[in-house]
Structures are given as structure tokens and as C-alpha cells.
Amino acid sequence: MVGLVLLLLLPGTGAISFYLPADSKKCLKEEIHKDVLVTGDYEVAELPGAVTHLKVTDSAGHILYSKEEAKKGRFAFTTDDYEVYEVCFESTASADAVRSPDQLIVLNVKHGVEAKNYEDLAKAEKLKPLEVELRRLEDLTDSIVKDFSYMKKREEEMRDTNESTSLRVLYFSAFSMFCLVALATWQVLYLRRFFKAKKLIE
Asked: Any idea where the GOLD domain is (predicted)?
């Protein structure tokens, strides 16, 4: 039984928690740009006789992360293309188990600058706090620039599509007018010939 599908539209909104009924499936989808780091922390409340599986896939169905009997953990991947990514939790209950209550699931998905661990980066590269903050601001700036570039590209694609559609509508309108004029001319000539044959007109 497929459950409710939730759309994550706002990045960085913190953890999401929801209840998953037994023998059901709930998925969360989000559109993410290309070459973006995505991390997710999840925790599934343990209930007797209930097992929950976790699967992360892209729009083509490729499995990016899969965990049988998921309880608590973390996943991470880098996006290959701009598309919709899906995180699905599926609960199965054993046949002899008593009707169990819904499982509480807590999921926190981050991507882009929010997904990077700057503390580990500072330790690895021996950066000072100010340098870490500058690196974070640099990454944030790059992310904003990429977003604007993508928006500009989408605007150009939409404009080209709009112009192409307008041109096609113009051609179709002209063709329709030509067909109407041709049909009207044919009808006039046909009726004239018909009336002449009936000797109603000379």
C-alpha cells in the first residue's frame, strides 16, 4: 500500500518527522541540481514485529542508497544530473505480530553547503575559524551563482519554447485561414454550378 508522498520544497528546513503505518510506504521527493552533495540522517523507532526498509533512488530508478531493516544511520551521495530524487521508507509487519502502532521516523536531509562538514575540513586542512567561515561563504556564493545560472538557462529555454510555440500558432492560424478561404471558394463554385445545372440561375 503506497502512502502519502511528501514534497520537500524548502532546503534547510531541519528534520522532518512522520508516522509510518505498518505494511505501508511513504516517499519524500526533492529536485536537486547537478554535482550537489546530499546527506541524510535518519532514525526509525523500533517496534516489535515491524521492519522498515530505506531506499534512495533517482527519477530513472537507480538505487543510490539502500538499507534493509533500517534503524539509524546516515547516507550521502553526489547528484549526477538535475532531477528528482526520492527517499522511500517501507514498513512490513510479520503475520503473527499483533497490530502494531505507527512507527515514528525522523529524517534530516541536507544538500549543497549545508551538507558539508566544515569542522572536518578545518581539521584536515588546518584552517583557522575565519578561514573556515570564508570557505563556507565562498561555497555559498558558488551555490548562488550556479542557481542563477540555472535560472538564466531555464529562462532562455522557456523563451525559446515560447517563441517556437508562437511561431507554430501563427503558421497554424495562417493554414487554418487558407483552408477556410479555400473551402468557402469551393462551396461557392459548387453551389453556382449546382444552381446552373438546375437552371435556377444563368
From this structure: 25-111
User: d(Cα 7, Cα 80) in Å, to the nearest integer?
Assistant: 20
Decide: 108 and 24 in contact? Cβ < 8 Å. Answer: no
Q: For residue 33, give the amino acid letter.
A: H
> What is the per-residue DSSP string for 7-21?
E--STT---EEEEE-
User: Would you list the DSSP string of 1-67?
Assistant: -EEEEEE--STT---EEEEE-TT-EEEEEEEE-TT-EEEEEEEE---TTEEEEEEEEETT--EEEEE
Name 24's Cβ contacts closer than 8 Å, sequence gap at least 6: 1, 2, 3, 90, 91
How far apart CA 75 and CA 8 sit, in angstroms, is 17
Q: To the nearest whole number, what is the mean pLDDT of the chain?
A: 84
Cβ-based burial of 143 (10 A; exposed 0-12, middle 13-18, buried ≥19) = middle
- Per-run averaged pLDDT (10 residues), the chain, 202 residues: 38 72 88 86 86 90 89 89 90 69 88 80 81 85 86 91 94 96 94 82 68
Question: Domain residue spans in the chain?
Answer: 2-113
Give the C-alpha separation, 181 to 179, whole Å.
Answer: 6
- Considering the domain 2-113, what is its CATH architecture? Sandwich (2.60)
